From TrEMBL:
The keyword Chaperone does not apply. InterPro entries: aa-tRNA-synt_IIb, aa-tRNA-synth_II, aa-tRNA-synth_II/BPL/LPL, Anticodon-bd, Anticodon-bd_dom_sf, Pro-tRNA-ligase_IIa, Pro-tRNA-synth_IIa_bac-type, Pro-tRNA-Synthase_IIa_type1. It is found in: Cytoplasm. Residues 38-471 form the Aminoacyl-transfer RNA synthetases class-II family profile domain. GO terms for cellular component: cytosol. Keywords: Aminoacyl-tRNA synthetase, ATP-binding, Cytoplasm, Ligase, Nucleotide-binding, Protein biosynthesis. This is Proline--tRNA ligase. GO terms for molecular function: aminoacyl-tRNA deacylase activity; ATP binding; catalytic activity, acting on a protein; proline-tRNA ligase activity; transferase activity. Catalyzes the attachment of proline to tRNA(Pro) in a two-step reaction: proline is first activated by ATP to form Pro-AMP and then transferred to the acceptor end of tRNA(Pro). As ProRS can inadvertently accommodate and process non-cognate amino acids such as alanine and cysteine, to avoid such errors it has two additional distinct editing activities against alanine. One activity is designated as 'pretransfer' editing and involves the tRNA(Pro)-independent hydrolysis of activated Ala-AMP. GO terms for biological process: prolyl-tRNA aminoacylation. The gene is proS. Pfam families: HGTP_anticodon, tRNA-synt_2b, tRNA_edit.
């Protein structure tokens, strides 16, 4: 490809709202252009990378035995209402009507469509298991599109769906997809980790894992163990806190000291209460009131912990959950925000496990400007609804091994695998006849990869202050040939000869045939991030060139033949 004919241009400046490195670099390098918030055009360089990622995905999906199809992006709203997700999915579901006033949705995912399709095509156990996939544009009306391709309203996704006759079969299908995802991300050159996760709006009855590209810009927090292989999204992560018995200065167990009411004027926050009473935040029991499906409930966590609303919502089996406003809190507890407590409370109380392990604590007294000291969990309030309702904290004990402590990382979700079970097959009637002629619901799994998001994730992981550094397997071109001066006949002749020979070997080569200053050419080459660069300069008459490896920026002056050999060796697995 001649660079003079390449559609798109490099930019000096990018919009101020381009916060992520990947967003800035792909705009500057001419890989993408924004049409509207969260909606992008892929220019030829970006599209070439995207197609290579698609190719890897297809190869590994096919290798795992999945079959490709293509489903409509526009879906009848009736399907979403039938599955029960029309209202649950919320405002991210883009809804529209046709000229006949029929309701449709632009698909953010395709569980309803694929389940209906399989329901109508398969009715016997003899035709199961089957796994189907597609690579297609998805639509989600993100509240705040940001970070370029990392959180857009229109994006390219690979979604796959498995249908089995048993949970054992689903386990095999799930494991097959898990292994295929591992190969895909390895081949794309990504640093990633698979973590336990929450199923979210997709739902399901079994396990789920997210594949996270490790990057500081990531919006997800990954919790992992310092000793074993335990890793989970913060939404799902659990931890261990072991009970410690405490005594006062007289040697009396604090659990035997009577509860005491203390005047605490204008002390609403944990920090204010701790300072006023001379205690630490972890000695305070924080009481928060939520509204779950229009009913108030209280949740108790330690003062140094935060409520995990996803865990709480799952435990309640609620469709909606939100923190109560001041008026609701007053009606439910008789106290303003900051002074609620579990003693004598009439609404259901959900107690985090770490609170049950406390010997005693400070709580609100359900009265303005008053708190209670020496409140003992289980003695002064019931523990009928105890469980894990908080975010794991760095330094907590690992739930899987005794030696490890938990640590945080940031990550970008690039893939997610779910065990759906019968959530959709039961609702939408996807059943088969077993060997005894009885109807049984199909056991489902679903598996998604953010294909376009991979571009940004890898750019976040693989760049320097000069530009992008593409892994060879997905680079837009593998070799960039740059004659320093197109007016020098020896340079242009040798550059063209190298281009022809490399292309004949099956390599993808971009030749910079522009009449531009050397600095402009080199800056653009750094931005593009092509793995190998051959600079044809003043030594061209003697058949020598400068070979530059983009990742290390290592340079060596060698003969043209040696440069070709080095490149062939470096790209041997791709040729």
């Amino acid at each position: 490809m001649k660079q003079s004919s390449l559609f798109g241009s490099t930019l000096r400046d990018v919009p101020a709202d381009a916060e992520a490195a990947s967003h800035r670099l792909m705009l500057r390098a001419g890989f993408i252009r924004q049409l509207a918030a969260g909606i992008y055009t892929y220019l030829p360089l970006g599209w070439r990378v995207l197609r290579k990622i698609e190719h890897i995905v297809r190869e590994e999906m096919d290798r795992a035995g999945a079959q490709e199809l293509l489903m409509p992006a526009m879906q009848p709203a009736e399907l979403w209402k039938e599955s029960g997700r029309y209202n649950v999915y919320g405002p991210e579901l883009i809804r529209l009507k046709d000229r006949h006033d029929r309701e449709f949705a632009l698909g953010p995912t395709h569980e309803e469509v694929i389940t209906t399709l399989v329901r109508n095509e398969i009715n016997s156990y003899r035709r199961l298991p089957v796994t189907l996939y597609q690579i297609q544009t998805k639509f989600r009306d993100e509240r705040r599109p940001r970070f370029g391709l990392l959180r857009g309203r229109e994006f390219l996704m690979k979604d796959a769906y498995s249908f089995d006759t048993s949970w054992e079969g689903l386990h095999d299908s799930y494991q097959s997809m898990y292994e295929a995802y591992t190969r895909i991300f390895d081949r794309c050159g990504m640093t990633f980790r698979a973590v336990e996760a929450d199923a979210g709006a997709i739902g399901g009855e079994g396990g789920t894992h997210e594949f996270m590209a490790l990057a500081e810009i990531g919006e997800d927090t990954i919790v992992s163990c310092t000793h074993c292989d335990y890793a989970a999204n913060l939404e799902k992560a659990t931890s261990v806190i072991r009970r410690s018995e405490a005594v006062d200065s007289s040697g009396t167990s604090v659990g035997e000291i009577p509860m005491a009411k203390i005047h605490t004027p204008d002390t609403r926050s944990i920090q204010q209460v701790a300072a006023f009473l001379g205690v630490q935040p972890h000695e305070i029991i924080k009481t928060l009131v939520y509204v779950a499906d229009e009913q108030p409930v209280a949740v108790l966590v330690r003062g140094d912990h935060e409520v995990n609303e996803i865990k709480l919502k799952n435990a309640l089996g609620a469709e909606s959950l939100e923190l109560a406003d001041a008026d609701t809190t007053m009606r439910a507890t008789g106290a303003p925000v900051g002074f609620a407590g579990p003693v004598g409370m009439k609404i259901p109380i959900y107690v985090d496990q770490a609170v049950t392990e406390m010997a005693e604590g400070v709580t609100g007294a359900n009265e303005a400007d008053y708190h209670l000291r020496h409140v003992v969990p289980g003695r002064d309030f019931e523990l009928a609804h105890a469980g894990d309702f908080r975010n794991a904290v760095e330094g907590d004990g690992c739930p899987r091994c005794e030696e490890g402590k938990l640590q945080y990382h940031r990550g970008i979700e690039v893939g997610h695998v779910f065990k759906l079970g019968t959530k959709y097959s039961e609702t939408l009637g996807a059943k088969y006849l077993d060997p005894n002629g009885r109807e049984q619901p199909m056991i489902m799994g679903c598996y998604g990869i953010g294909v376009s998001r991979i571009l940004s994730a890898i750019t976040e992981q693989s760049h320097d202050d000069r530009g992008i550094i593409w892994p060879a397997a997905i680079a837009p071109y593998q070799v960039h040939v740059i004659p320093v001066s197109v007016k020098d006949e020896a340079q242009t002749t040798l550059a063209q000869e190298l281009y022809d020979r490399l292309t004949a070997q099956g390599l993808e080569v971009l030749i910079d045939d522009r009449d531009e200053r050397a600095g402009v050419k080199f800056n653009d080459a750094d931005l593009f991030g092509i793995p190998y660069r051959i600079v044809v300069g003043k030594l061209a008459a003697g058949g020598e060139v400068e070979l530059v490896e983009r990742r290390s920026l290592e340079k060596q002056v060698i003969s043209a033949d040696e440069a070709m050999t080095c490149i062939a060796d470096g790209l041997r697995n791709l040729i």
